[in-house]
Specification:
Number of strands: 5
Strand order of the largest sheet: 4-3-2-1-5
Low-confidence stretches: none
Oligomer: single chain
CATH architecture: Roll
Largest sheet: 5 strands, antiparallel
Distance between the termini: 40 Å
Shape: globular
Strand content: 35-45%
Helix content: 25-40%
Protein name: DUF2642 domain-containing protein
Number of domains: 1
Structural class: alpha+beta
CATH class: Mainly Beta
Keywords: Membrane, Transmembrane, Transmembrane helix
Length: about 80
């Protein structure tokens, strides 16, 4: 029982974190941002916010999908 409750709370926290981040990111749509992830840093124009990812367009034209769960910070 405790284990399943713990998993449920972790899942709920993850969803709330994604909703909060998505809400904050909306003001930066079509703006150049810097994103720090568990895999490194990405700089580009925020072109889309998906259900569990964001899409950046890098200056060289490459599109990068960043999972919200790997997002550590942005500016």
């Amino acid at each position: 029982m405790i284990d399943s409750t713990s998993r449920y709370l972790h899942k709920l926290q993850s969803r709330c974190k994604r909703w909060s981040i998505k809400w904050l990111l909306h003001r930066y749509l079509m703006e150049i941002i810097t994103v720090v992830t568990s895999g490194g840093m990405v700089v580009g124009t925020l072109v889309a916010i998906g259900s569990d990812y964001i899409e950046l367009l890098e200056p060289n034209g490459d599109r990068v999908l960043v999972p919200l769960d790997s997002l550590e910070s942005f500016s």
